[in-house]
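Weekly structure sync, notes
Attendees: PL (lead), two postdocs, one rotation student
Agenda item 3: pending single-chain targets
PL asked that the sequence for the first pending target be pasted directly into the notes so everyone works from the same version. It is reproduced below exactly as submitted, 234 residues in total.
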Amino acid sequence: MSLTDEAISRIRALIQTGALPPGARLPPEHQLAAQLGVSRNPLREAVKALVVARVLDVRRGDGTYVTSLEPRLLLEGLGLAVELLRDDTLLEIVEVRRLLEPAATGLAASRISDDQLAEIREHLEAMRAASDDIEELNRFDAAFHRTVVAATGNETLSTLLDGISGRTLRMRVWRGTVETNSSDRTVAEHEAIYNALAARNSTLAQAAALMHINTTETWLRAVLGTVGTTSEEE
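Predicted structure, written out during the meeting:
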């Protein structure tokens, strides 16, 4: 472990133990270096790294503070990382979505409010109206899924799924440009999800979401020439 990594580990330990809770201001550099038992140069590099990771926030003229440490803040870099993945890992992203989103949709069915359900209905109607405009259709598609997952009340889950949506969104646009009648199928699959949510039926909602994602995965496997089956078929 480098001296910088050691400094990062020790600062994280202070945060994890509550010695430096969210919103706390770090001690002056010389004091913190002495407290951690490291020199100032590794400490500065550690602080820079934790700032990039959104764990710390440098406020010029004021000091360095621990951020709120909320999931959306700490995990916001996930989307950028996913965007940088190569095409040969695209199927892995869909597999991750298949693992997470049906479960999230089932959970949403048990927690969704009337207002959230109405918002999802609006996105569905917008998708239907935009069936001839693939880019608009996919924009409302993404909004539909974000609202569904937000209904779980689980910010970590919402952030993780948001992080992989950009890549899959572009994939759905691609699908719409090369397949006939794909927009009709997409709207029908989303309507099935909505109906299950409206019924507050978690099992049906999870199944409808899984069928929707499996459609995308099956298409992608065919496009990429991937040999294999989904975990449900194995």
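Discussion points:
- Strands lie at 56-59, 63-66.
- The chain has a mean pLDDT of 88.
Action: rotation student to compare against the earlier draft before next sync.
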